[in-house]
Design brief:
heterodimer; A: about 100 residues; alpha+beta; two-stranded antiparallel sheet; 3 helices; 3 strands; B: alpha+beta; Arc Repressor Mutant, subunit A; 16 helices
Chain lengths: ~100, ~500
């Protein structure tokens, strides 16, 4: 049953494209239903009286969790590169991608 | 630079400056933040995006960001981190951690040496990406067969400083970037080295018909690796857009790449909508909430900013008097000297030398013109020794040429300027030798002497030159001029 925050099939197709996921028509239907149910669940919160509750960005009531600017040991390069599919000149070799990073 | 008239059009420029912070370690892990190390040696599970790793924020990076905000007159606010999602091999996590709708610094400004003010919209913290090298094909991005990635830079702390679209010329864009670099160096946040990529500039450029017209469609220009490239690219791009519009076309919103060799911008890609990055709050990091005490503590560590350092030298000149008399504003040449001295970090030397008793205009000129040729060495000069040297010039016991020679030696090896001068054989020309030399040269050039006596003062320069030649530069120019005037009567 679609709730107030239900998601359209087009929205799901768009999100899938952004995530570089190729979905079949049947999968699109499935995920539209499932994601809609998740959003409906979140919509339950909207039914609560939240006047006077400040917005929160995090489940933990913490701020300023910091570490000192002190170097720690790094990984061994040979070990790091050993898990790469392709290596050249001690660098990760990757397929070329048209356009530049954002 | 081909600045100036755009035929009734006005350019509108905003700059985004990425500044690598001079921390010991990366933003979210303890890997060393070092430029130029062997590839993929400063990496760990966090900056390689390995499963299960968790970021922990570097306190020094936060404090340097706050220092930048303070120096730019920003409001320092509670802030959060977001994930900016995109697929590109320079970010192994497939997202970059950045500040989005709640940046640490907002709403500041930067005053340029010419008095104009450029607004600062925000200055936020984010992590740098890895370095990709495009191999095969043309060696450029387009047409390359594959890329090689070094993750040493992945996770290095950056502050991105976004200006308001307040800039109206290529020269002003350059002046803004130069002044901002000075501020970043002064805060200790950056070494300001554009050629090493520790300060990177992107320019948003649009054009409109005059100051009251609505903003036009903008293009973002990347790959600006020097102040010169910035000025050239902005000028080129504004003229390109004007040409498009005047021929009846429309400007497409694009990201464009500056080709320094070709002297033009080329299209890279159409701008993706901001929502396509699917920003969401980084669940592994909690907010940063600086209180007043923390903000004050950081502000107290700030060194003197370039504008204040320039003002200090202007005050020295005004107090001294110089050519224009006490209280006079610096000449254009002196303003250039002040800019040079502050840019090269020689202002403490000037202040110390003037305090030791040398006239401010002479000190400034020698610092900006002579000492500045070796800025590294000049920063190590002892002001007392520099003052002793310039004192010998003031008293006439060394000529300007001799002072340059002694200064070069003093900067390289230190020591006593008087001893260096003596070792070089730079003894002051005895007064009777000078008088005799002038008399000989006057006798040898009767025509020139007659013209000088008839009031052509330019001939004083001719005779001074002849005396310098005859004495191998040992004569004092002022003493020669005085002797010439005495002879003329």
């Amino acid at each position: 049953m679609p709730g107030r925050y239900s998601i359209s099939r087009d929205d799901v197709a768009h999100v899938a494209m952004l995530a570089r996921l190729e979905l079949s028509d049947a999968e699109l239907d499935t995920y539209t239903d499932q994601l809609g149910a998740v959003l409906d669940h979140a919509a339950d919160v909207a039914a609560l009286d939240l006047a006077g509750v400040p917005p929160t960005s995090h489940a933990l009531a913490l701020a300023n969790v910091l570490r000192p600017d002190e170097p720690r040991p790094c990984l061994d390069r040979a070990e790091v590169l050993a898990s790469a599919p392709a290596v050249e000149d001690d660098r990760f070799r990757v397929p070329s991608i048209m356009g530049e990073a954002p | 630079m081909t600045g100036g008239d755009l035929g009734g059009w006005e350019m509108v420029v905003g700059l985004e400056v990425h500044c690598e912070l001079k921390t010991a370690t990366k933003l979210f892990c303890g890997c060393p933040n070092v430029f130029g190390d062997e590839p993929n040696t400063n990496v760990c599970p966090v900056c390689l995006g390995l499963p299960g790793s968790l970021p922990v924020l570097n306190q020094q990076a936060v404090e340097l960001a706050m220092a930048i905000g303070t120096a730019l007159g920003c409001e320092i606010r509670p802030s959060t981190f977001h994930r900016k999602n995109y697929f590109y091999p320079d970010m192994p996590k497939d997202y970059q951690i950045s500040q989005y709708d709640e940046p640490i610094n907002v709403d500041g400004h930067l005053e340029l040496p010419d008095g104009s003010v450029v607004g600062i919209v925000r200055a936020h913290l984010e992590e740098d990406t890895g370095k990709t090298t495009h191999a095969g094909g043309t060696g450029r991005i387009h047409g390359s067969d594959y890329s090689l990635v070094d993750y040493n830079r992945s996770g290095v702390p950056l502050v991105e400083i976004v200006s308001a679209p307040d800039i109206r010329s290529a020269a002003q864009a350059r002046a803004y970037a130069a002044e901002l670099r000075g501020v970043l160096v002064a805060t200790g946040a950056s070494d300001g080295r554009m050629e090493e990529g520790s300060m990177r500039v992107d320019a948003n450029v649009s054009v409109r018909r005059g100051p009251d017209a609505p903003f036009g469609t903008r293009c973002e220009i990347k790959n600006l690796n020097s102040l010169r490239s910035l000025a050239r690219a902005v000028e080129y791009e504004a003229r390109r857009q004007i040409e498009v519009l005047e021929s009846g076309g429309t400007v497409a919103q694009q990201t464009r790449h500056w080709d320094e060799d070709a002297g033009r911008t080329v299209t890279l890609r159409s701008k993706e909508e901001a929502t396509d990055y699917r920003y969401f709050l980084e669940p592994d990091l909690v907010p940063v909430v600086p209180d007043a005490q923390w903000i004050t503590a950081v502000a107290d560590t700030l060194g003197m900013l370039p504008a204040a350092r320039r003002a200090r030298l202007v005050d020295l000149l005004r107090a001294d008097g110089g050519a224009g008399g006490a209280g006079a504003a610096p000449t254009a040449a002196q303003q250039d000297q002040i800019a040079t001295v502050v840019d090269l970090g020689l202002d403490d030397l000037v202040v110390g030398t003037v305090a030791a008793g040398v006239a401010a205009p002479l000190t400034l000129a020698r610092a900006a013109n002579e000492a500045a040729t070796e800025p590294e060495l000049a920063r190590g000069l002892d002001p007392v020794a520099f003052a002793a040297l310039l004192g010998m010039e003031e008293s006439g016991s060394l000529s300007a040429t001799q002072v340059k020679s002694v200064l070069a030696e003093l900067m390289r090896s230190g020591g006593d300027p008087a001893a260096i001068a003596a070792a070089k054989g730079f003894e002051a020309l005895a007064e009777d030798t000078l008088v005799a030399t002038v008399a000989e040269l006057v006798a040898a050039h009767p025509d020139e002497w007659q013209r000088f006596c008839d009031g052509d003062d330019k001939l004083a320069g001719f005779f001074t030159g002849q005396v310098m030649k005859a004495t191998q530069g040992k004569a004092n120019g002022k003493a020669v001029a005085a002797e010439l005037r005495r002879l003329r009567g």
